[in-house]
Amino acid sequence: MSVSSVTPEPPAPNGSTRASRHTPDEARREILTSAVQFLSERAFRDLTVGELMAGTTLSRPAFYQYFRDLHDLLVSLLDDVEAGMHALANPWIAGEGEPVSGLRTSLRGVVQSAVENGTVLRAVYEAAPLDEHLEAAWSAFMGRWDEAVMGRIEAHQRAGLIGPLDARRAANALNAMDAAILIAEFGRFPQGDPEAVLDTLHAVWVGALYGRPPARIDTVSR
């Protein structure tokens, strides 16, 4: 049964009138938005389907038309975060411009995404060990970052910008550090200072990969 066929709807617990018809995309997005709002105020362990759906104009059973359970909902939220974060990190990953400044631009995007989505990242990270599906999604999320960073490290090694090191292990270490710091700084309120976090991450990445800033170059081999 589609969401659009669930009519009429009872009044929402908060007194608002529940909408009688939704497109599937609208309904799904409304549920995700309610989850993000909840996680900005409270921990995932406190979330129930009833409380989540009380923040929407949908009935409680409508949740199960889109998500298997609350952990499955977190997987969808993580997918949304990943898409935006990868787009913001693209300059360095894609080898655009001078490496050190490009790296800072990419890290700035990652930090900004964490400022906006840190509570979601914290919820996924903390809940992942408790659900096999979510744990696999988090591992795949981190693995895709490792692959992207490893590819750029290897390209810069071929260009003579980065010395001999194990690109995969370096990528894994840097990404694991980023995840830990970003969740600690932005996973709950009050959040940390984005510029201070950016300065720290950039210094560590540059030191680990380049030793010191390389000479400016116009293009980088891919």
β-sheet strand percentage? under 5%
The H/E string reads HHHHHHHH
Helical content class: 55-70%
CATH class of the largest domain: Mainly Alpha
Structural class: mainly alpha
Low-confidence stretches: 1-19, 213-222
Tertiary shape: elongated
User: What is the mean pLDDT?
Assistant: 89
Q: Give the radius of gyration.
A: 21 Å
CATH topology assignment of the largest domain: Tetracycline Repressor, domain 2
- For the record, the CATH architecture of the largest domain stands as Orthogonal Bundle
As an assembly, this protein is single chain
Main beta sheet strand tally, sense and closure: none
Number of domains: 2
Q: Compute the separation of the termini in Å.
A: 49 Å
Question: Would you mind describing this structure in some detail?
Answer:
This protein is mostly helical and about 220 residues long. The protein has 2 domains: about 5-65, no CATH class; about 70-210, Tetracycline Repressor, domain 2 (Orthogonal Bundle). The chain is built from 8 helices and no strands. It is elongated. Residues about 1-20 and about 215-220 have low confidence and may be disordered.
At a glance:
The protein has 222 residues and is mainly α. Helix content is 62%, strand content 0%.
Features:
Tetracycline Repressor, domain 2; disordered C terminus; single chain; about 220 residues; mainly alpha; about 60% helix; 8 helices
Task: Explain the layout of strands and helices.
Elements: H1 24-39, H2 49-54, H3 70-88, H4 90-93, H5 99-127, H6 132-158, H7 167-186, H8 194-209
Helix pairs in contact: 3-5, 3-6, 5-7, 5-8, 6-7, 7-8
